[in-house]
Amino acid sequence: MRKYFIQTFGCQMNEHDSEIIAGMLCEKGMEEAASPDEAQVIIFNTCSVRENADKRFFGTLGQVKKKKKTEPETIVCVCGCMMQQQHIIDTVKEKYPWVDIIFGTHNIHEFPKLLDSVISVRERQIDVWPEGREIVEGLPSRRLFSCKALVNIMYGCNNFCTYCIVPYTRGRERSRKPENVIGEVKDLVADGVREVMLLGQNVNSYRGDGDTDFAELIYRLDEIEGLDRIRFMTSHPKDLSDRLIKAFGECSSLCKNIHLPVQSGSSRVLEMMNRRYDRDRYMELVDKIRETVPQITISSDIMVGFPGETEEDFLDTLDLIERVRYDSAFTFLYSPRKGTPAAEAEDQIPEEIKHDRFNRMVDLINTISAEKNAAMEGKTEDVLVEGISKQKPDNLAGRTDGFKLVNFRGDASLIGKIVPVRITKGKTFSLEGEII
Ligand code: SAH
Ligand code: SF4
Ligand code: F3S
Are 343 and 162 spatial neighbours (Cβ–Cβ below 8 Å)? Predict the structure, then answer.
């Protein structure tokens, strides 16, 4: 067992879990393979948030069958959010006999043990915990980027938005102790990290200990010498505190960017979604944030086709998008998830209406993004250089403080550095620039 390959679906939580799985395998002396063909251990870290994530996973799992036939020694492992659902485990057991290990989101630290068992007894191992137990600290991690790191501050979600599977796959909220978070960030900085992304399904409900809430954690992290940038995701509008807004003005390393998912611009739909804020409250928050930090960039998650959504509700969403003028947004077609209340609703929206609304929404969002990015032309931005550009291999790629992607010419020796870049062109999804 020399090489592993991990395919990750879903959000940053999963991305970070995959970094930990990779870290544990590296500790066993293994190395990453460039493709599944070269790997003896293949891991699929799955996501369940929408139906197409499920489908893509089963499609990919089907392709592994061939490899397992020609190289029966290959160990195939599946984990992540899908595996926290019994009906999925049953399907894998029944239809995909070539899977060797199934584990869940609450016990990734057990993976090396499960792997050893499969190697020694050659028998399928299934170990999924229904709920999270004590938070396991000190797991290794093999970072995707050398200059920036994902740091979990909490696990799980208590919000039960009526469309969402996450509370069922990630369990109840549990926060890490502030000393553990701060200690990890200090170690990362010592290892060359300049930017951390703090992760939680709802970071605003972080409760580290008696008096460390999320804003306090930011203030404490802001004091760490050598840490240039702090970001976080995701923050739920229902409990975004005034103190956190103030932190944007006072903490120099806190990036001037916020991802504040609105989901819908209709108060009626927001209520059916159990989001616990309405359109006015959301707009109030946006105004308050912009009063404190006028240059802040704002992004969102927005969905169309929630059961019962009328054309009027949808127009409210378009109107809110126009008023907020998001820098960017992730857009989704509502996808019914087994076990969630909204999936049982009778007034599901027909596919063609969903798609029509989706296209109209995306057009509006893209128009605004392009306008906002064009307005940056001529400005100079500090850019953290992350690596070689994926779009243009002779370019570098990095992010502005406001999280905009910039491509520009430069030497690879700049990777990991923060450099001033003059923006020469603003496109819909990225910027072009030149180093000054
Ligand atoms: N905790 C984060 C969201 C995590 S899921 C938050 O509350 O903002 C990321 C996004 O996926 C959500 O914001 C939502 O827009 C989308 N999403 C979740 N469930 C969905 C579903 N059933 N259908 C379509 N989109 C969904
Ligand atoms: Fe899902 Fe809502 Fe929790 Fe976000 S806050 S993970 S959308 S239940
Ligand atoms: Fe998907 Fe699980 Fe994240 S369902 S979006 S991987 S928390």
Answer: no
Nearest CA to ligand 2 atom 5: 159
Residue given tokens 């062109």 in the structure block? 425
Ligand 2: lining residues by beta carbon, under 6 Å:
157, 159-161, 164, 166-167, 201-202, 236
pLDDT tens-digit readout, 176-186: 999 999 999 99
- The tens digit of pLDDT for each residue in 5-58 reads 999 999 999 999 999 999 999 999 999 999 999 999 999 999 999 999 899 999
Q: Where are the beta strands (DSSP E) in 97-235?
A: 101-103, 125-127, 148-152, 154-155, 174-175, 195-199, 207-209, 212-213, 229-233
Å from CA of 200 to ligand 3 middle: 11
Q: Are 306 and 347 in contact (CB under 8 A)?
A: no
- The string of pLDDT tens digits covering residues 363-378 is 999 999 999 999 999 9
List, in order of start, the domains of the chain with CATH numbers: 3-127 (3.40.50.12160), 143-255 (3.30.750.210), 258-375 (3.30.750.200), 380-435 (2.40.50.140)
Cβ proximity of 206 and 174 under 8 Å: no
222, two tokens:
């802001």
Count of alpha carbons within 13 angstroms of residue 396, beta-carbon side: 23
User: What separation in Å is there between the alpha carbon of 128 and the centre of ligand 3?
Assistant: 16
Residue 340, ligand 3, Cβ within 6 A: no
Atom of ligand 2 nearest to the CA of 275: 2
| Structural contact between residues 288 and 243, judged by C-beta atoms closer than 8 angstroms | no
What pLDDT score does 429 carry?
96
The rounded distance, in Å, linking the Cα atoms of 158 and 190 is: 34
pTM score, two decimals? Answer: 0.96
Distance 46 CA to ligand 2 centre (A): 17
Q: Which residues line ligand 1 (CB under 6 A)?
A: 49-50, 163-164, 166, 201-202, 234, 236, 261, 263, 301, 303, 332, 334-335, 337
